[in-house]
Amino acid sequence: MSNNKPTRPKGTRDFAPAEVSKRQYMLDKIRQVFTKFGFQPLETPAMENLSVLTGKYGDEGDKLLYKILNSGDYLAHLKHDLASYTSQTLTPEIAEKGLRYDLTVPFARYVVMNRHELTLPFRRYQIQPVWRADRPQKGRYREFVQCDADVIGTDSLLCEAEIIMMLNEIMTALGIEGYEIALNSRKLLAGLSQYLGHPDKEGPLCVAIDKLDKIGQAKVHDELRQQGFDEQALTRLTPVLDIQGSNHDKLQALGKLLTNEKAQTGLREVEEVMQITENMGGDLQHVSFDPALARGLSYYTGIIFEVRLLDGSMGSISGGGRYDNLTGVFGWPDVSGVGISLGIDRIYDVMQNRGLFPATSSQTTQVMLVNFGEENLAYVLPLLGQLRQAGIRTVLYPDNAKMKKQLSWANKNDIPLVLIAGSDEVNNRTVSLKNMKTGEQQIIPVDDVVTTIKQVS
Amino acid sequence: MSNNKPTRPKGTRDFAPAEVSKRQYMLDKIRQVFTKFGFQPLETPAMENLSVLTGKYGDEGDKLLYKILNSGDYLAHLKHDLASYTSQTLTPEIAEKGLRYDLTVPFARYVVMNRHELTLPFRRYQIQPVWRADRPQKGRYREFVQCDADVIGTDSLLCEAEIIMMLNEIMTALGIEGYEIALNSRKLLAGLSQYLGHPDKEGPLCVAIDKLDKIGQAKVHDELRQQGFDEQALTRLTPVLDIQGSNHDKLQALGKLLTNEKAQTGLREVEEVMQITENMGGDLQHVSFDPALARGLSYYTGIIFEVRLLDGSMGSISGGGRYDNLTGVFGWPDVSGVGISLGIDRIYDVMQNRGLFPATSSQTTQVMLVNFGEENLAYVLPLLGQLRQAGIRTVLYPDNAKMKKQLSWANKNDIPLVLIAGSDEVNNRTVSLKNMKTGEQQIIPVDDVVTTIKQVS
User: Fold this and answer.
1) Residue A260: which CATH number?
2) For A29, which of A86, A290, B203, B288 is 20 to 30 Å away at the CA?
3) B269 and B208 in one domain?
4) Would you call B36 and A394 a contact, using CB atoms and an 8 Å cutoff?
5) Domain contains B2
């Protein structure tokens, strides 16, 4: 067996039944909230043309794209002698398709291809795997599911407020407590950059302060110095990053400090989003205005979000924000939108660690019938049919194996109830019902089986 | 825009929200039946090592595998000069992974890799996309979803009977009428081959009679002649293929004709499977014993199934059977199992053509609130919050656009109900509820909105 033992590619996972059930439970809850807020499901293919994917994720991203070898005699149509090629020059000639790297570029591609049929605003959610040829490490996979929700075609701040409410509802639906939704505005950061005397350095400023949590203020200063920020700028930055107090206090204080128009617009938008949330009956107790929230991506232009656990057990479990130009790269400028992405693997881990998954899922088999062989089947088979008819997830052990083996199989498959009908039971028209958790066993009339099981499960 | 207009790879599809909702409705129904019968969900990665995939689908299949280019400088470690390679010899050196071609080989790989943890029998279902570099044509895609359910680790005929019941329940759950479940046994076909005087030609016999529906008996004869069957054999075959009558009649008649042991075993198994189905309270009205059912794959060794529509509008919508050796190719022999595969795309088409999808799905947005701008929001936002609180899928149009534009958006998004609160309504603390299908409009007190909407949707 050892010589042809099959393997699975590094960085990929199989999901056993118990895991799939839990992931489905989690995703169903999220889907329910998405649709309650009017988001509609979209699915795009795993394979995209490399012309669509390349150049969208920076040079690093391009290297991480999985490329698919063209079919057939792919070397037949090379422009030059094979010997003259390097890996880099050969790839575009032998691979025209690649695997989806994220859900945003395929979404933009879809929007542009369907621009005549779509009536904006368009609210879509998308839950699908993506692939990245990254170095696998703990918690980082080469194939993983992304979960995005976006509204495009409107710049109304109502959407930002709805996203806050949606994040709250998702956390509630999943049972996750002890989190905060950090909120900031890229406009405020642009204003901050101006206030620091470097209006042209908003990008490097965002990249640096995005690391504040991880590396601390001293190292953020070092990085900013390298980017050409002077000491006066750093002195001005400190009270902004150190700011404390309620959301209201922070908005007030910064309003006095950062008086330029960009900063004022950013502050006003943050305030308005919170106001709308309250008007919708939403709860601001988890919302924290954080002027140091920057989000790495250059892509964002307005309000930005991040969901963090207060116990600091892991990085952010969701992030997003407003962008002004989803489809510009495909020739359709000025499509504004706002969206979030949920970190499914991290959320799964939180729920697993905190025991938030229900003990049995809607997929777990509820009842096993013991198999005592041929003669016994005439008694047991109608029962199996009735239980399923009643919607109870039931199996009959398919072989006449030893009782111990059958019970152990039920145990390993987390089946909570077992029905035993030996010759005594058959003679008395009864069945023994065994609770696999407590070990308790009771004898019930065969005609009461369905009702009894419905009561106890 | 035209110069960088994005495209989608040939043979792939985007699924718009309405389609995703319908597909999810269909798959949820199927999943519910699977789990009722004790099948548990498994998921494997899209990427598999080519060492696992290659050689499992014949030479033709190998050509249809999508291969993924190795990352980085993949030409750096070639054994020979680049110039000396052909497409065929280069591929194994530059691609070590490929995309899943079906769900059976990954399942076998999973079973072998987890053989110490799995307690057989193992019932798994798997609903995931597969990829084939086939020539795209109507109804044939390069990326499509397969839907398989298998029980492995037991040779009990109970499993075959359960599959018949499961197929019936799936058809009922989806609302598909006018179908038959054709049933036969590969053992009977082996016996038939022996009866025809060619015990070594079971394979070619199966391949030929599998085409009976498409090409007719004369051409089947031609094909069999080419395979070396003599005229006496063809004369003996005719009454078998022509057989008519009830399942009972056909079993009786063939029992007298085909007296060899293999044929008798096959007939007995078909009979037993039908008997067990009846004992479970199952319905045989859709089950048709069809001695000409062969299924192309050489893989099957026992009972085989096929689900067909009686109106002949398309090929089979499901097929499957028993096999004796799932994992032999990975060094673990004698793992027997029985399974079925559902043709999701075909089933979707049947349901679409027959109007079997509900008008609104569990994802369709139920209510749109009209947006009359800033001042009006104080009235409308709490309503939005309350409706969602009550679990009603609701959107507020995000911008203060013209009423006509907002209503047309609701229409295009199939939203059945619209709430309008202009200044009159605000003054009277009412709301107008417009039914988008009938055009009817009624005025209701603002406090009754949630209850009224719950009644009408």
Assistant:
1) 3.30.930.10
2) A290
3) yes
4) yes
5) no
Q: How far is B67 from chain A (nearest CA, A)?
A: 6
B339 shares contact with chain A (CB less than 8 Å): no
B412 touches chain A (CB under 8 A): yes
Any domain includes A10: no
**In the listed set A288, A322, A353, which residue is the last one of a domain according to the structure?**
A353
CB contact B82 to A (< 8 Å): yes
Q: Are residues A284 and A415 in the same domain?
A: no
pLDDT attached to residue B297: 65
The stretches in chain A having pLDDT less than 50 are 1-2
Residue A313's pLDDT is what? Answer: 84
Q: Which residues of A touch B123 (CB under 8 A)?
A: 395
- The predicted model scores a pTM of 0.94
Residue that finishes a domain, picked among B353, B378, B411: B353
In a domain, A75, yes or no: no
Provide the shortest C-alpha distance from residue B282 to chain A (in Å): 7
Looking at the fold, whether B438 and B416 belong to one and the same domain comes out as yes
- Measure B234 CA to nearest chain A CA, in Å: 40
What is the interface size between A and B, counted as CB pairs within 8 Å? 317
Residues of B in contact with A393 (CB under 8 A): 35-38
Structural domain tally of chain A?
A: 2
Give me the pLDDT at residue B253, please.
Answer: 95
Q: Is the ipTM of this complex over 0.90?
A: yes
The pLDDT assigned to A2 comes to: 42
Instruction: Identify the segments of chain B with pLDDT beneath 50.
Output: 1-2
The boundaries of the domain holding residue A416 are 364-456
Q: Does A50 map to a domain?
A: no
Q: Do A382 and B151 touch (CB under 8 A)?
A: no
The shortest C-alpha distance from A103 to chain B (Å) reads: 13
Q: Which residue among B7, B42, B73 sits closest to A20, beta carbon to beta carbon?
A: B42
What is the predicted pLDDT for the residue at A297? Answer: 65
CATH of residue B388: 3.40.50.800
CB contact under 8 A, A17 and B90: no
3-state secondary structure chain A: CHHHCCCCCCCCCCECHHHHHHHHHHHHHHHHHHHHCCCEECECCCEEEHHHHCCCCHHHHHHHCCEECCCCCCCCCCCCCHHHCCHHHHHHHHCCEEECCCCHHHHHHHHHHCCCCCCCCEEEEEEEEEECCCCCECCECCEEEEEEEEEECCCCCHHHHHHHHHHHHHHHHHCCCCEEEEEEEHHHHHHHHHHCCCCCCHHHHHHHHCCHHHHHHHHHHHHHHHCCCCHHHHHHHHHHHCCCCCHHHHHHHHHHHCCCHHHHHHHHHHHHHHHHHHHCCCCCCCEEECCCCCCCCCCEEEEEEEEEECCCCCCCCEEEEEECCCCHHHCCCCCCEEEEEECHHHHHHHHHHCCCCCCCCCCCCCEEECCCCHHHHHHHHHHHHHHHHCCCCEEECCCCCCHHHHHHHHHHCCCCEEEECCHHHHHHCEEEEEECCCCCEEEEEHHHHHHHHHHHC
